[in-house]
Design brief:
By secondary structure, the protein is of the alpha+beta class. The protein is built from nine helices and 35 strands.
Amino acid sequence: MKARATLLSSALLLSSWAAAQTDPFQRGAPPQATPSLRSGNAVTVPGATLNVPPPAAATPASASAASPVTAFGNPRSSSDGNTTRIVFDLPASPLTYTLTPTFSGLRIDVQGARVIPAVTARLGATVTEYRAGGGQVTLVTPFPLSTTEGWRASEATIAGGTRVLILEFGGTLSGGAGPTVKGRVLAAAPATTTAAQATLSAPLPTSPSAAAGAGLFPGTVGSGAAGAVGAGTVNHATVKGAQTALTSGGNGVGLPPGDTIRTGPVVPAPALPGADSEKPSPLTGRVPGDAGASVPLSAPRIGKNPGLTRVVLDLPAGASYRLVPTALGMRVELSGVTVGPAAQMEADVSPEVRGWRYDAVSGGVHVSLLTAAPTTVRSGWRSQLLPPASGSDRYRLAIDLSPALADTTALKPSEKIVASVPPIPTARGTAILALSASYARPRVVIDPGHGGIDPGAVGAVVEKEVNLAVGLRVRDLLKAAGVDVVMTRDRDTQLSRDKNTDLNMRAGLGTPGTQLYVSIHVNAMAPANVLRGYGIETWWNPNHPLSQNLAALLQRNTIQTTAAFDQGLKSSRSLAVLRNSRIPAALIEVGFTSHPVDGLNLRDDNYLDRLALGIANGIRDALITGVTANNSVTRSAVGGAGK
């Protein structure tokens, strides 16, 4: 299977493909002129002349050649309208690199040269973050990229003999990697190294002055970095210092991401006709009727909706199918059909479907659907076998593909239970002298964010309503398990009409004797970026040595119960309810109200049940494994916690 997947990926990228279709997902400004960088040297590119600034470390004018480039990084950038150009100097051989367009931007994997570690925000209008380290560079864009849409790449030689890689990003651009590019383009990203993951998780600089010149400091991470960081590594001490010094992230009170966004009505993705969300989509099926001679399989019909792509296969009577989710997408194994004269492959179908391919096998056809994110038995897809449409005798196997599709099936009553949590010892007064201790239920604060006059993010759902619905479910699960739960609110109200006061009052409920603090929120993206935001992420601040451990347990358990897209742990923003807490604290964003698919998840009571169960199990795991305030008294000085 792995060999077949590899063959598919190579074929999709290197074979002759059908002309790219108009893609409604690539929305942006009207077409505009290609940007040019001013005060630079002319670059010779076949068919065009581009102006690119000289390398950052150019030699004096009297020198006959530029100094040799030995590392990859420190790009120059410019913007013109809604297009941003990024220029990298390319070290001499043996450098090789790959380019991987993704939902969130472009990833560059470099071999044969050191990648200069750096993290900065906004290189231009359409490059919102730059992260480099561990052999990898990530350029974050506010729109998804396909192999040909949203970006262009070329190589050229500038005056002095330096070879450069020129990247352009814009919502209306198309072309992908041009013929001068020597690097390979991949349809699926390679595994991320530990060093690169550390860079991806590092905080952004806290002030524009941290990004002078080209916007990068060679060998540093964040605004508080001092000195160079070794190749492929991130200075974690510096990162922690930067996190501790974070301000409120520009919102004045340290709000979670998306809290002030009002997207308005969100058009939901269309549901499959007759589908039962209470049950998982079947992995196998058979078309009614008697099987006859195998018939040619026509090309799939594609339906595109924001955030979701529907693939429809027309099947004859008696045909059978088997769906196989994979790390590269979905394989559909069909019997009763053959590969016909119709097109047998296509690339760049949509942001969700990178391409499809038909392969003839004994007894039928394998249809490979290459997606931008992995699929599992429980996530990334839905399917339904539909009867023939009017005027046709073919049944329709409809497959919806979206990384935001999660598990919305109902939990069994036996699953809506959290295992009991034992009481914890509490030594008080003369009990210490008597070498004895009393026991009490562990206390946890649950904070359903917002409430009352503060709705939070508004889109497919109103954030304050979902936060409370999930929070009350968590409370009930934990109380039944023997946990003393303190709610910051248990109805639609705010703690104070002043936002700063409200947040401080919430954080202040983590009083001595309380073990954990968990805040529940819903995320959102601005209208221009809504398709990039889906899934679950958990935030922590360095307010306490065990806050990151708590966040990891919450994220792991919630992803396990919901099968939602895993956005991972975040710590690049200082959040008031976290930084002002003196106990292990975390804030979980349970989904995106702005996304047309994820928003539907948040409307589903079954999904809210799963979210609550995951959060409650994460809290239980923290309590029984010692990720608590009581268990870190002797370590409270680490990272300045408790000060």
